[in-house]
Amino acid sequence: MTSFTDFLTTGLLGLSWVPDSAWAGGVLAVAILLGLGVFTLMALNAMVAVYFERKVSAFMQDRLGPMEVGLFGFRGGKRFWGGIGQTVADAVKLVIKEDTIPADSDPRLFRFAPFLIFGAAFCAFIGIPVGYGLVISDFNIGILYVTAISSVGVIGIILTGWASNNKWSLYGAMRSAAQIISYELPLGLSLLLVVMVVGSLQFHDIVAWQEEHRWFLIHSPFTMVAFLIFFMSGVAEVNRTPFDLPESESELVAGFMTEYSGFRWAIFFLSEYANMAIISLMTAIVFLGGWLSPVGSLLRLLGIAEGWYYLDGPIWGVFWIMGKVVFFIFVMMWFRWTWPRLRVDQLMYTAWKVFIPFSLANIFFVGVWELVFG
Amino acid sequence: MGEITFIILAALVVVTAYFTVTSPNLVHAAVALMGTLFGVAGLYVFLYADFLAATQVVIYVGGILVLIIFGVMFTTQIGSQVMVKSSVPNRLASALAVLVLFVGLANIMLQAPWHRGELVAVEGTVKTLGTSLLTRYLLHFEVAGVLLLLSLLGAAYLARREHG
Hey, is the C-beta of B1 within 8 angstroms of any chain A C-beta? Predict the structure, then answer.
């Protein structure tokens, strides 16, 4: 499987007029180009997702504000584009706001920590394909890489909480650390089950397996349970309602990000929406066939068609995977605007006494299932 | 290219390790330790040990370092410059321990049969690792598993609330 980076490096540096001595520089240029590409993608994702979230909340809870802000003659109202000016206003406001640093904080860590959270989300994007072959680096250990690098973000959260020197921040950071470490286990265990069946940690192999057999969502009852556990743990990992205890507005002001303002605060937002996209992408790839079209998969499952159907393939694939991602992001927003928050003890109960035992049992039963039916 | 990468990674490890040891602020030391751990992970990638690198990040950065920072956050006077002044006999004893450790490690390093040829990337490191863990190194694997299970049970027992 050639990745996007290979394509660029061999494509650009293989040209006859590029001297061999420019190789190191060329690789660096490709790396910078791809980095800027990922950053642009993340920024766009956050802008669109913030607008989407405002609209979802507005429709679900009858909030009037996000419906009204017009732009260039697009008037507000209960329409698809109602309130589109809000996105521009948000972005401008975040960039021009003053960057305040509390007097009693630890200034170096206070400045550094948000970028650690951002860096974790940014690095995770490197390993996740957003379509057939559309991946910056197709790691042999894809799934492990993404889960490993995402687990670094929690250090950033703890450090922001500590460096702010504020009780709300510290409470938020403590809750976050406990929550993220707890939910990493069911998350990893439910992925392990898929890895066990496929026999590979590479995202492309997992999708190829699902193309050959069937989506993991409908593969067996146990993978279906794994899907539910994975998605719910994923929601907990990105600190979204009903698991938004680290920043619970009604009790902790804004949790670990209380003291932040301006662009540094925008970095938190960027990372939060990027993490939502990562969890949605992982769910789509691992359990819902990634870039395979539902039409083609259904036809293959029924034995009507072989190979790629006309709605499959690299270009349609991007459409399908993005559709699945947007759906899961919508589901997370749906949770946020309809469900109340869990209590801390309920949160821990869910992770340690429900999700983890079920995931462990799942691994055993899926092994039995594969031996009998596989 | 390879040499430059190695020098950058090695410098990262050494410089951040120095900060870890000398920083008077424990949280800063923990953050510097993160640089060391990442640098070592980078060195593993450099040696084509991708699985080991990811495991290093999961266990040391995502697990142990989080616990260290979490623990350090609750200690008093983290930011202050007051360090514990140890007595002279203690210092001598620790210097001796460090010397013995250093000589031992240096001895191992000098005697180890280092691979000096060109490195070749192994296809499917994970498969090879998995197979050898469940065949050749099965006993080691099982012993490590039992040890971890015991520590898990011990932790659960210690954290248990006493009833009656």
Answer: yes
